[in-house]
Batch of 3 targets.
Target 1
Amino acid sequence: MESWQQSLRAAITSPQQLADRFAIDPRPLEAVCVRYPLRITPYYAGLIREVGDPIWRQCVPDPAERDDAGLPTDPLAEEAHSPVPALVHRYPDRGLLLAGNSCAGYCRFCTRKRRIGRPEFNISFTELQQGIATIAATPQIRDVLISGGDPLLLNDAMLQELLGRLRAIPHVEIIRIGSRIPVVLPERVTPSLCRILRQHPPLYLNTHFNHPRELTEQSWQACARLAEAGVVLGNQTVLLRGVNDDLETLLELNRNLLQMRVRPYYLHQMDLTAGTGHFRVRVEKGRELVAGLRGRITGMGIPQYVIDLPGGKGKVPVNGDYVETWGDELVLRAPDGTKVVYRQT
């Protein structure tokens, strides 16, 4: 059986490989890939049925990514909230530990697309150690989210050491992992990985299914192995034009996630990230979709619809408690009481 490392090495990483497989013209994609790298695992590429379908849109570069539309590359001000390179500290009680800079697949809508897959943003082992040391020296941090890049691309020994060091910090109560591995490289969820994760309870993993066609037998098995290892599973879906911006797709996605023991957690409004405007759905449409879920699926299957506020102000639900003005420019109230403008156009 082919290992997950071999699958990763066999990933599509150039427009020419896409052209060879799907009979497209690679030239319009080449300039995109200079700026935003390409990686599609053999498994995930196998889910594409036709050019332009919901799987294709998520993983194949689009010339529209070159249009920044006046949007920032770091809309959540993560770099401004980084006391050291591997740690983002936007919330008083939470820390985001960047365990790496690589993913099994490079999502075209990624909020960190400015840095993911680019060598100049690699996280060194020394920087990762600095991040852990900063968490240890900051007693108010009780909740650590390990992200990156995808932390499950670390080898087993490295992941064991990372989790062990965090568990040894007395004030760290909660460890969460953000990973799209169950979606794009389910073969990575090996028995040895699950043995490691089982040793560090309570452990939470939020994955990132966006479309029902991603819920394959392989992904079901990967999530089952994680759940049986005691990992609490949630899902964060991004609302994406041409992928999941219709009610029946979201219903099917969330119903099946519950059967997989994965709780729908967030439905994210797209971050205002440069190079992602072609995916954006208006907030009014998102509210309509969430309202449509009610009465057609158990409340456990209805994710919270949120906006991650520009400038690093944090996530807020899209409702009247936090949205003061609707329209092309939403005025939202941040958790600290300040007002933030979210421009839809």
Note: The chain has one domain: 67-315.
Target 2
Amino acid sequence: MTKSAEKSGVPADSLYSRKPVFAVAPMIDWTDRHCRFLHRQISRHALLYTEMVVADAIIHGPRDRLLGHDASEHPVALQLGGSDPAKLAEAVRIAEAHNYDEINLNVGCPSDRVQSGIFGACLMLTPETVAACIAAMKRVSKAPVTVKCRIGVDEQEPEQALPELITRVLDAGADAIWIHARKAWLKGLSPKENREIPPLDYDIVYRMKERWPDVFIGINGGIQTLDQAEAHLAHVDGVMLGRAAYQNATILADVDHRFYGEASVEPDWADLRDRMMAYTERHIAHGGRLQHVARHMVGLFTGLPGSRRYRQILSTDANKPGAGPEVIAAAFAAVDFAGESERVSA
């Protein structure tokens, strides 16, 4: 085993120097800047990720729209898609001005549009390319450079493919590895099916941590609750929730207490309402629409009395012409936060 594969070179003051790390996974079409702003209001410490942004888009497209984020989002990581080391390095150079806390390379997304660009999960078939990309990104990045991968693709044997990938990217300077504990099937399964049908294999991720005890290794895939997340942390350094955190972001309210040592406090949902209304007002003033923000809030409060009416208001009224922050106030007023009759005051 090479020296770089034995120990990660994570800077002492980086976000990975403090363990554990709880993260909300990057999700295409979901974890945009409005989603991340909402999540940050609920958890101060959870690591948030952008949607995957293709390197070519950053180089040639609307950079401020693709890379812009609210200052409150930190710690926030930029996930890049690509397979050309020079283009990825140029994208990292451009992104430096936006002060992301981490740059992550997507080696796990199985969608058709990713495959057509020769990146995402199909890169697991060419670990030497991934290593070249990481090395190029590391040369220009001030932030930690990390990899998010699967345990293998198609007919690969994970016990061989995953260690080979990890060894190569650590030799190239990767600071941390996030592993989605499923294979990806590039042919025959849709992206949704790839999140559900390939069996989970958490044990192989645990074995990777045992093999590289000094390297930050985080786990992702099928984790639904904070109890499950906490159980994984007996074996790895970080845990990442995806759809479970998005579809019911209320669970993020206990993250700071359970994983970061903060005092346990009752969430101030009235304060969240007011902050989201103010944020939405600013967004609309700059030409945005309420729905851009409200669509990420629909999953809040699942299971509470009034949550169904809350969802109806946000799903229906937020789409109406001229809809403003008052729709958020009306939705919150429908929820019985005490479980009986006490409501958030209007």
Note: The two ends are 62 Å apart (CA to CA).
Target 3
Amino acid sequence: MTSLTLYTKLETLPPNLKKEAKNFIESLIKKTNKQKEQQINQPKFGSLKGKITLSEDFDDSLDVFNDYM
């Protein structure tokens, strides 16, 4: 549906339905903006690659647990 077709149909509505259509369109715009924000704020898989490192002695036993081994 083209914008002109939509505008033509909108112009045939009475004023109270035009207001309802306007409110509906505004709610659709808000919904779209929220979806875009969620997509922007959602982290991408692998985005922390190379930023987290483990120390060389990560797998070594801790001295605190020597009594239990």
Note: The chain has a mean pLDDT of 87.
